[in-house]
UniProtKB/TrEMBL annotation, chains A, B:
Cofactor(s), names only, from the UniProt record: Mn(2+); Co(2+)
Gene Ontology cellular-component terms listed: cytoplasm
Native source organism of the sequence: Chitinimonas taiwanensis DSM 18899
Subunit structure comment from the entry: Homodimer.
GO MF annotation: an example: 5'-deoxynucleotidase activity
Protein name from the UniProt record: 5'-deoxynucleotidase
Top enzyme category: hydrolase
One Pfam family from the record: HD_3
Record keywords: Hydrolase, Metal-binding
Entry EC no(s): 3.1.3.89
InterPro entries, A to Z: HD/PDEase_dom, HD_domain, YfbR/HDDC2
Domain HD/PDEase: 33-151
Length: 195, 195
């Protein structure tokens, strides 16, 4: 294998450090600071392995993990967009496409294609793996909020109806997980943990 | 599937948040703060996928990823031990065993056994996957230091000979990666990036 091939891989690897500076709206349990997208990507990839048995139809858990390890990398250039931010969606898509082209473009050709395809599988939400990856990415911050007395919902003025609408794709990919979380969301509303 | 089964899985999932508070000695590129073990676990799991083709013998890249997603979870109870800290190794092993028992013990039985086995595969470094996972975990902070003018080496008084001795397992699992990094370590010594 040529040195140029390896050097391209290592350029990509070191570029990834930058995802550790991209902040989300959630605060990890017991911490004051905001969560970053790199530690979130670890958490949600492991979540997919943990909960894959709840996917309907069944999924290739390893592919879901790969999708989730890669799914937020475009935020290095495009930054994190809050789920409940309804503005600028078209602009977001264009920024993330450009980011994918630049960042995955650091890689040797075969890996550039493979990694871009995995990222697109998350964005497209057509395959069972893409849908389940998206469902995990929706469910995790809800569970964090339920454990956290609604921290990011309250800090950002998020209403119950928004949560239901935005997170309904969970029901499609893992109905058992939706059945579990729905009554807990209703209890959170009753407890005043939503705006 | 019973609700108790899912609740056990979610208890484990939320426990993982605590790994985001465990600090290492490395600072992510361009940042003043120390890296935490959750974001590191993401980085090194993705590294394994990226560089698996350099493993000799060949490895199951997906299993290496799973090993690396899990390998640092015991630090939630046992904290991070700096690689070059030569004291307290026996105590470290005992603390990590107890941590594995408690944390993986949150899971339903089948997953407890599967996750514990993956963690032990990292610790034992006997299988090609365990060895390559360990090699990635050694190589990543070296690459970060080489990109960072020796930041964690200099901050912690680490000498060239220590780096060579501690990181030699890379040569066994991925000789091409060792051949790449060795002359760069020698250049780092010449540049004064090691103590």
């Amino acid at each position: 294998m040529s040195n140029a091939h390896l050097i391209a891989q290592l350029d990509f690897l070191l570029e990834l450090d930058k995802l550790k500076a991209i902040l989300r709206r959630t605060r990890p349990a017991g911490m004051q600071r905001l969560e970053n997208s790199a530690e979130h990507s670890w958490h949600v990839a492991l979540m997919a392995l943990l909960l894959a048995e709840h996917a309907e139809p069944a999924v290739d858990a390893e592919r879901v993990m790969k999708i989730l390890l890669l799914h937020d990398i475009v935020e290095i250039d495009a930054d994190d967009t809050f789920l409940y931010d309804e503005t600028g969606t078209l602009e977001k898509v264009a920024k993330e496409e450009a980011a994918a082209e630049r960042i995955f473009g650091l890689l040797p050709a075969a890996q550039r294609e493979a990694f871009t395809a995995l990222w697109r599988e998350y964005e497209d939400r057509v395959t069972p793996e893409g849908k389940f990856a998206y469902a995990c990415d929706r469910l995790l911050p809800m569970l964090q909020n339920l454990a956290n007395q609604g921290q990011s919902w309250l800090e950002n003025g998020v209403r119950f109806e928004q949560v239901i609408r935005k997170n309904l794709p969970i029901k499609d990919a893992a109905p058992g997980l939706w059945d579990y979380v729905l009554p807990r969301l209703e209890a959170a509303r009753a407890a005043g943990w939503l705006a």
